[in-house]
């Protein structure tokens, strides 16, 4: 049953990914236009994923190549929506997880391309996810985890403002309300993943690496996904190991 529903949500997931492309990747216009020539994208050229394939990844008007991030955002959003149904069934939990995952994809894409965590994505997503979490399992856990996690990054941002932005703080609030007590898994995973490019840059550029900005939102998003799908299992394993 869950597998059939997971397949069924792929099409709406693609549509959601297409919407997020407009909301996040086409900042600041927020309109569905070619970023090179400015022509409005026709309805027939705006079918998620399919239009990209039919147009061979190029704008119909100016023949400029369309970035791979657009179809990848659509495909990844659809795949994660299906994964949420497989993991949590047809439930409010799956709905909250899908909203969370879609926001993570859009925010990561925007941070990679624009170096920004869009308020128009992260703030509404946080509110919606919190409402859904409280509706399915009323608890202080969700807001407490969000405030604790974002407070931790806020302290880091205040101590080292060049290394952490306020966008990351707001993203951590979203992750906390989505994964609850598993939020330490998200943060630890993000920090470990973020060490990889930091070490590479340090080896290549030495002290100059401190001046090179690395978008951190994708690493936080990856940590959020690990916490969502495996965080509680990892916590149980750790507590059992410690006991």
Question: What value does the average pLDDT take?
Answer: 81
> Kindly, what is the distance between the CA atoms of the first and last residues, rounded to a whole number of angstroms?
38 Å
Based on secondary structure, the structural category is mainly alpha
Please tell me what the overall shape is: globular
Number of strands: 0
Radius of gyration: 19 Å
Portion of residues in helices?
Answer: over 70%
Helix count equals 10
Pattern of helices and strands? HHHHHHHHHH
Low-confidence parts, pLDDT < 50 over ≥5 residues?
none
Strand content: under 5%
Main sheet record: none
Question: How would you sum up this structure, described in words?
Answer:
The chain has 243 residues and is mostly helical. The chain is 70% helix and 0% strand. The protein is built from 10 helices and no strands. The protein has helices at residues 2-8, 10-25, 50-54, 69-88, 92-114, 119-136, 141-159, 166-179, 183-205, 217-242. α1 packs antiparallel against α4, α5 (92-114) runs antiparallel to α6 and α8 crosses α10.
Entry keywords:
mainly alpha; 70% helix
Short description:
The protein has 243 residues and is an all-alpha fold.
Please render the helix and strand layout as text:
Blueprint: H1 2-8, H2 10-25, H3 50-54, H4 69-88, H5 92-114, H6 119-136, H7 141-159, H8 166-179, H9 183-205, H10 217-242
Helix pairs in contact: 1-4, 2-4, 2-5, 4-5, 5-6, 5-8, 5-10, 6-8, 7-8, 8-10, 9-10
